[in-house]
Design a protein that fits this description.
Blueprint: H1 2-13, H2 16-25, E1 31-32, H3 33-40, H4 44-56, E2 60-65, E3 68-73, H5 76-85, H6 105-108, E4 110-112, E5 115-117, H7 118-130, E6 134-137, E7 140-143, H8 145-153, H9 158-162, E8 170-173, E9 180-183, H10 185-196, E10 200-202, E11 209-211, H11 213-223
Antiparallel strand pairs: 1-3, 2-3, 4-5, 6-7, 8-9, 10-11
Helix pairs in contact: 3-4
């Protein structure tokens, strides 16, 4: 029954160690068991037990390469679910009182598995909507003909992306902004293009990303986004 399966998944994610594993994997890359054990400060024996349970539940997949075994989400929907759960974390009571405190890098601009999130990700989505490059349809997003032209200029093959067996374009609730940014294969392709073209640079051992001077210029040129 669906109810029993849901209870099983919820109990798996309710364990603190497994929750830390899933949060760490939101970085978007595969980790070895040793790397995960170091990252969440637990023993190799303990991490192995938890990874086995997550793999058996089809939440994670494992791939052997040489002497190493690499763990990652079994499918992108798992990453989106973990990010969505994080929006349930209560907003700090003092958050709205602190006016002059600088925003943290992870909240300003970060990757949400394979797409852009944080304040910048939400601001970019706002610009896409304002310029009618994407259109909101009830609880979903749709790419407009004007948007197709912009993405074509960026050498992003929209037709090819729409053939993939995953969501093409959809809203994803941002845990730090409590508003939506874009997700799906189109958002993933856009992030990859921005990293490849040095608009953005990843920070080592963090999901936070840096916007380069070139990136600031190009984000305004294509999307009218001022940072």
């Amino acid at each position: 029954m669906m109810e029993n399966e849901f209870i099983q998944i919820a109990s798996l994610l309710g364990d603190p160690t497994r929750a830390k594993i899933m949060w760490t994997l939101l970085e978007g890359k595969a980790f070895t068991a040793t790397e995960l054990a170091i990252s969440i400060e637990t023993s190799p024996q303990n991490i192995s037990m938890h990874l086995t349970k997550l793999v058996n539940a089809d939440l994670l997949s494992v791939e052997s390469q040489g002497r190493h075994r690499y763990y990652q989400f079994s499918k992108k929907e798992v990453a989106y679910a973990i990010e969505s759960i994080s929006t349930l974390v209560p907003q700090s009571k003092n958050e709205n009182k602190i006016i002059n405190e600088p925003i943290s890098p992870i909240k300003y601009c970060r990757t949400c598995y394979d797409h852009l999130a944080g304040k910048v990700g939400v601001a970019l989505t706002d610009k896409l909507l304002q310029q009618k490059l994407i259109i909101k349809r009830e609880n979903d997003f749709e790419l407009s003909s004007k948007g197709r032209k912009i993405f074509a200029e960026l050498h992003i093959n929209v037709d090819e992306l729409q053939l993939q067996r995953r969501s093409f374009l959809r809203p994803c609730l941002d845990w730090s902004e409590r508003r939506h940014h874009i997700a799906g294969s189109l958002a993933s392709a856009l992030l990859s293009k921005m990293l490849l073209n040095d608009w953005l640079r990843k920070i080592k051992n963090s999901r936070a990303v840096i916007i380069t001077a070139k990136g600031e210029k190009k984000l305004y040129e294509y999307f009218r986004l001022s940072l």
